Amino acid sequence: MAALFSIGVDVGGTNTDAVVLQGDRVVSWSKQVTTPDVTTGVARAVRAVLAQVKDRNLQGTITRVNIGTTHFVNALVQRRDLVPVSVVRLCGTASRALPPFCDFPQDLKKVVCGSYHLVNGGLQFDGQEISSLEEEELRTCIRTIWEEGGRNVVIVGIFSPIAPQAQEEKVADLFRAEFPEVSLTLSHRVGQIGLLERENAAVLNECLKPLCHRTVEAFRQALNALGLTCPFYLTQNDGTLISAEQTLEFPVRTFASGPTNSMRGAAFLSDVEDAVVIDIGGTTSDVGCLMGGFPRHASTRVKVAGVSTNFRMPDVLSIGLGGGSIVRQMDGADRNETESTVQVGPTSTGYGLVREGLVFGGATLTATDVAVAAGLADLGDPGHVTSLDRVLVRQAVDRIHQMVEEAIDQVKLSGEDQPILLVGGGTILVDGKRNISGASSVQKPQHYQVANAVGAALGQVSGTVDRVVNLAQTTRDQAISRAKADAARQAVAAGAVDSSVEITEVSEVPLAYVPSNVTKVTVKAVGTLKDRHTGAGTDLADIGSTGTMATEQQMAEEDAVAPPPPAPPPASPAGHLPTLQETEPQIHPETGEWVLSRWDVECLAVGVGILGCGGGGSPTLGRLQILRAMDEGRKIRIIAPERLGTTPALTGPVAAVAQMGAPTIWIEKLFSGTETQDALQCVKDLYAAGCSNGQLPNIEDSFEVKQGDGVTYLDDYRPAQTDSDRQTDAQTDADGDVPEIVAVLSMEIGGQNSMEPLVVGAALDLPVVDADGMGRAFPELQMFTPLIYGCETCPAAVADDKGQRAALLQADSPKHLENHFRAVCVEMGCMAGVVFNLLTASEVRSTCILYSQSRAWRLGHTVLRAYKNGISPIQAVLQQENGRLLATGKVSFGCPEDHHQRVCPRGSEDRGVGGFPGETLKIDFQNENLVARFLSDNKVVACVPDLITIVDADSGTPIATEEQRYGLRVAVLVLPAPLLLCTPEALQVVGPQAFGYPEDVIYSPYFNLRCSANNKDEILLDQFRVCSAGVISVEY
User: Boundaries of each S-Me-THD-like C-terminal domain copy (predicted)?
Assistant: First the structure.
């Protein structure tokens, strides 16, 4: 049988590498300069490896060529070769507050935003329709897009990943029938649960398709010119292959193939499947973890070219260390006391190393020069670096090793030492004789220089399933089995040998606040690609006889090609820190109103996430709504609680507002923008109808008042009267008093619910009181402090995106209110706006947590300023809040069947921090974090109502419970609870026993403000106050 060969090519920012593989043997390899047109460099690299094969007189068949390229992500970063896209969102009444393109960078939006159309359709989490598709509406939409010149369309439906055939596929069929020339991307085929991110990924995919067609055709022609008529593939983000034909439909699947190829190649060359891989190139080093021979995937959203996405990307840390990294001596003014006196990178000569480096006759000191001077490498002319200061060389080598060790520590999943694999041409920078902290072994496998091309040459394909499953309708085992079978079928459809398919990944994430044990299941299957060599491969004997091998003149001409553009920046976590200009709060000198700026919104988004203790939902959606309101010219104002009642405009009741439901549902269904406003109007209508003591004397005959389970309620209260009718009736009927609401406040100062009153205030032109009803986030409504301290519960209301307004006239207790509204919320699709009985000014000041918006702003401001100034955001927060660091480490386990466990191990780097070296910390949660204990002695070290919050270990940004994933590097902090949560009556509702903990779990307040017992309240408030009654009081 003839030998079978495969060719792997990886196009990097500096070099294009190629190899020929025969089974598990590298037959030949080549490293060529990347060219601006990409294909020329690819052709040169392939030609070079084929020439080596021919020189050795090897016989056999080339079965395939696999290419890894950053060409498409380059185009996004550089905003070139992109086309406008029209988005058709199947959403019905949902999601309208955040339309397509709402979070795109403006420069990219101008290029790719063709149009968007919000039409009927969309699904609930259980597969039920939000609304049915309307064919005539869709036909009108199709005609509009055609008449406007649109040819590239994205179809995205709410919860389409759970049932794509229900709506997205049907709409696609209609488009193809009416508009045969259209190019379509269906969102369920490129992204996962999370509507905006999946929609964004689909847009990026569609806007690249014309460029992808040109590029793939250019590759095909280049390979044909070399005599290669075999199939060719591109490498995907997950380390598997996608055919050239499939790439035409899914260019986004190739974005991160470079780091992925290096990691896959390292595993192949070393025969090690679980390790940390360090790929050191000319400008940067990519560091990631291998798990079962494949890169670990990023567990959070990532930004690509400034756009938040959620398609599967490798979890890779990029640092500014490479062969071309510029080395410079730092004086005291340039560095912190703890920093090295020598800086290596992040600036680099890049592809200019061979001209600018000292050993090549240039004038720039680079990391390569240091390696040559230290005797680690033999490149260029060593005589050019013999005069370098030996202390400088030693310090630079030390700094390089420190950077490598720090990177290893950041990507490791535990404190245990891990095998380290070094690949890439820049590995000459690492002294193989030195121990590397965190490494159990260090390997530099044969052919390490071209590990990326080796990874590209490997032949595996995959299938992935990502869906929401209601375990009340099936068993967990059945759901997992079906997902595995579907993933395996996808792999086989992609070309895998049926018998080779293996399940490589199974994960479950339970959805909080959703009944019947609903969970999100993700399964990946991988199999070996069938080599379709019969009649499809290229015989080596035919290559060269057709005159396709390079001539010396061709090679000389290609050597003159200009250097390529710089490589694109790597994908970054979507929770990146903003780069806005820092501003101080703007306090109106006469009214005392704090008018929010965009910087204030960014500070609040970070701060409320920290105060949310993992709950309340991610503030990202609220942040986008607020910024959109600002763009529309709306003002967002915050007033101090003592301002209430001081002027006629501020004399009247205050409405506490929130969203209730499941945060995981929110990120898919988004918000209509009317839910909370409708609930507020419902409460006003109840007052207008004379609601009192559970009675509604002025109710219309068409409404049925019901009783049961300790509540009196109406299923849907929407009176036919207009606002003016209600006002007139109220003036003539003493029983009907329509309140004029003067302000709104947050029910909880955590996550999305901290942003909701700002959204409502902007929409209704009402100020937001600097206060809230929880001082953090809590999972249940009865934990609202005004209810704890005796304020009336009713009337109250919840409303959904369709305008249904469920009213509560009377509840035997706040817990009965919670139970009733929770059941209604589930019927509404697990999300609704909620408003309680209105509060008086004195009730706000006596029963609410004061200055909570200010506290959130100060927290966010502290984090952003610390990060900007290069100091530890964690320490800055602890100092600002008088908090305590419990642990720094990696999230190592989250039990999929139990909402109440999360485990965070301490890394070896944390010895001495917090006094718990080498421990494992377990955090119980019910969406919000409740209790933290170390597993060694099961001792509780923090518990509710104190604030246990989890933040990114480096940036200090908060990580919500639904975003916690295996391997995240985090810090666990405990911050003091407001005093109103620490009283005996409050602890009955929000203390550990309220969450089912036994009596031996005793709340011991973590409260250590430096003040006497009789003035704790005053000092605590002064610490957080930003604005007061006509007085500017900003502390830094």
Answer: 814-1005
Q: In what order do the strands lie in the sheet with 302-304?
A: 307-309, 302-304, 572-573
One DSSP character per residue, 130-183 reads SS---HHHHHHHHHHHHHTT--EEEEEETTGGG-GGGTHHHHHHHHHHH-TT-E
The DSSP H or E segment spanning 308 is strand 307-309
pLDDT digits (tens, 9 = 90+) for 628-671: 999 999 999 999 999 999 999 999 999 999 999 988 889 999 99
Q: Secondary structure of the chain: what % helix, strand, coil (to 5)?
A: 35, 25, 40
Check residue 242 and report its DSSP letter.
E
The CA–CA distances, whole Å, from 1034 to 393, 565, 869, 1022 equal 48, 46, 20, 10
Tokens of residue 1009, six digits: 């403000």
Spatial separation of the C-alpha atoms in residues 197 and 206, rounded to whole Å = 14
Hey, which residues does 397 pair with through a beta bridge?
A: none
647: part of which helix (H) or strand (E)?
none
Question: Token pair 């109840």 is at which residue?
Answer: 686
Helix pair angle (752-764, 675-688), 10° resolution: 60
- d(Cα 921, Cα 899) in Å, to the nearest integer? 16
Burial of 173 (0-12, 13-18, 19+ CB in 10 A): exposed
For residue 1001, the tally of other CB atoms under 10 A from its CB is: 18
Strands (E), 542-609: 572-573, 586-587, 594-595
Question: What are the residue ranges of helices labelled H in 494-639?
Answer: 552-559, 598-611, 620-631
C-alpha span between 1026 and 161 (Å, rounded): 44
Q: How far is CA 788 from the centre of its chain?
A: 36
Q: Which helix (H) or strand (E) holds 894?
A: none
Spell out where 560-604 has E strands: 572-573, 586-587, 594-595
Q: Is the backbone of residue 1028 left (phi > 0), alpha (psi -120 to 50) or beta? A: beta
Q: What is the structure's pLDDT at 613?
A: 94
Is pLDDT at 914 greater than 90 in this prediction? Answer: no
Lay out the sheet containing 113-119: strands in order across.
Answer: 113-119, 85-90, 152-157, 183-186
Three-class SS of residue 316? strand
Q: How far apart are CA 582 and CA 987, in angstroms?
A: 39
Q: Residue 603: name the closest of 578, 626, 628 by CA.
A: 578
The CA distance from 359 to 380, in Å, is 5
Mapped onto helix, strand or coil, the DSSP state of residue 64 is: strand
Counting every residue written for the chain, the total comes to 1036
Name residue 153's beta-bridge partners: 86, 184
How far apart are the C-alpha atoms of 442 and 456, rounded to whole Å? 23
DSSP state letters, 244-304: HHHHTT-GGGGTTHHHHHHHHHHHHHHT-SSEEEEEE-SS-EEEEEEETTEEPBPSS-EEE
Would you state the structure tokens that stand for residue 710, as one six-digit string? 């300790």
Side-chain-facing half-sphere of 139: CA atoms under 13 Å = 5
pLDDT of residue 514: 61
- Give the model's pLDDT for residue 544: 57
Could you report the per-residue pLDDT of 989-1022, keeping only the tens digit for each?
Answer: 999 999 999 999 999 886 543 333 333 344 344 5
Contact 905, 414 (CB under 8 A): yes
Compute how many other C-beta atoms are within 10 angstroms of the C-beta atom of residue 179: 18
Q: CB-based contacts of 263: which residues, under 8 Å, 6+ apart?
A: 239, 277, 279, 288, 290, 294, 295, 314, 455
Give the dihedral of Cα atoms 1005, 1009, 1011, 1015; nearest 10 deg.
Answer: -70
Please report which confidence band the pLDDT of residue 340 belongs to, taking 50, 70 and 90 as the band edges.
low
Rounded to 5°, angle at Cα 822 from 819 and 825 = 150
Structure tokens at 326: 């510029």
Name the amino acid, one letter, at 681: Q
Task: Name 385's Cβ contacts closer than 8 Å, sequence gap at least 6.
Answer: 358, 359, 369, 372, 373
- Tokens encoding 491: 């792999």
